[in-house]
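Minimal example, chain plus magnesium ion.
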Amino acid sequence: MLKEVTATRYITPLREGGSLPGLVEADDLGTYVLKFTGAGQGRKTLVAEVVCGELARRLGLRMPRLVTVELDAVLGLGEPDQQVQELLRSSGGTNLGMDFLSGALGYDPLAFPVTPEEAGRIVWFDALVNNVDRSWRNPNLLVHRGELWLIDHGATMIWHHNWPSVDASANRRYDASDHALARFVPDIAAAAADLAPRVTEELLTEVTAEIPDVWLAGEPGFGTPDDLRRAYARPLLARAAAVHERIDGIPAPARTTGTTGPQESK
Ligand SMILES: Nc1ncnc2c1ncn2[C@@H]1O[C@H](COP(=O)(O)OP(=O)(O)OP(=O)(O)O)[C@@H](O)[C@H]1O
Ligand SMILES: [Mg+2]
């Protein structure tokens, strides 16, 4: 279970984000980036954030801690901005919060080179979850105290928008040509050799258990929230072993350290 906190104060909108996430203070005195259940794609985006964020952290990637944030819709009453007020009003109940990395800067590949090892791990992870939102235009990476952190996993696992086609879409290739870290010659083979064996059914059960029931209830075709949790785990488990063979658009490494051999990118 994610830690549960209650929002006590809406501080400000984060206008860089398309979904207009907000900064809030909570009853544990923490400051969180709040992703609203009433925004855009709503709770599916939040489920994707939990599954991918919790998986990334367990695979050793830097990912701020996630919490659930209970929001009383009356917090919106005093908000002068109409758009923000509507978001707050439509998001009463359980929302997603992420530790706010104070002073973090948006990632700039020109200012912050990454090793092939680290780039490989992040590209491999993004291929696994089919993240289409880590491009050089919108990297969704932050630099905090000299280290790279992952954020924003709302646009992943496209198959959860069409469960009947999950098997076909989960077999898709991953085009990394626009990936923010593609230029650093990601060592995909080394990442796959290390990370793929760690993506086990047990780990995915632990990860999907973190999704609040309330975001899973009522999905057509599924009985209980646990049925849907298993549906989230299955394609990730199936993809993990061979996703490194399905990554297109990155330079071939001059040298590989993994046991699975170099992958042709085209
Ligand atoms: N944990 C965090 N700590 C500090 N700043 C953050 C954090 N999370 C998000 N931000 C800031 O807020 C911005 C928007 O966040 P995020 O990308 O998660 O929102 P979004 O609405 O999903 O964005 P997008 O426009 O990419 O869909 C980030 O670009 C970053 O500047
Ligand atoms: Mg973003």
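The pocket of adenosine-5'-triphosphate (ligand 1) is lined by residues 14, 16-19, 21, 33, 64, 98-101, 104, 106, 133, 138, 140, 142, 151-152, 154 (CB under 6 Å). DSSP finds seven helices and ten strands in the chain.
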